[in-house]
């Protein structure tokens, strides 16, 4: 858990699909966030920050660490047929272990959408015991939307 924070964002869609404007829906489709509580890991770039700023009223994000990335890969990563990934799948991708895959995802050198047998998203459950903050406000206003400082702890309750 003392791993250095990476150069990639964990993005989680917090709002549903109803009454979402076309431009926000298109942006979330590009990020592979087509349903509520879908999560993805995106490398930090200027265009990524612009996309996040555009859809900040529908998603939460935070820089991800290697520990959380590894936990997401082991518990929630899926391949075709919605099956869990195995060590053989990881070696076919060119990585020695899930630790190495998690490290490359967390530092931004690999992207989920380029790792072909894997789904480019993680399907999370609603959080156990609900959200502790308001779900309709930005993080700075006491809510969960936008750049969220406690998102990694929240995601652990959603796995």
TrEMBL record:
Keyword Ribonucleoprotein carried by entry: yes
| MF terms in GO | RNA binding; structural constituent of ribosome
* Family, per entry: Belongs to the universal ribosomal protein uL30 family.
Give one Pfam family, short name only: Ribosomal_L30
**Gene3D superfamilies associated with the record:** 1.10.15.30, Ribosomal protein L30, ferredoxin-like fold domain
Record GO biological process: maturation of LSU-rRNA from tricistronic rRNA transcript (SSU-rRNA, 5.8S rRNA, LSU-rRNA)
Q: Per UniProt, which keywords does this protein have?
A: Ribonucleoprotein, Ribosomal protein
Query: Could you give one GO CC term from the UniProt record?
Result: cytosolic large ribosomal subunit
InterPro entries linked: Ribo_uL30_ferredoxin-like_sf, Ribosomal_uL30, Ribosomal_uL30_euk_arc, Ribosomal_uL30_ferredoxin-like
- Protein name (Swiss-Prot/TrEMBL): 50S ribosomal protein L30P
Which residue range or ranges hold the Large ribosomal subunit protein uL30-like ferredoxin-like fold domain? 10-59
The record's NCBIfam families line, in alphabetical order, gives: PRK06049.1
Q: So which domain of life are we looking at?
A: Archaea
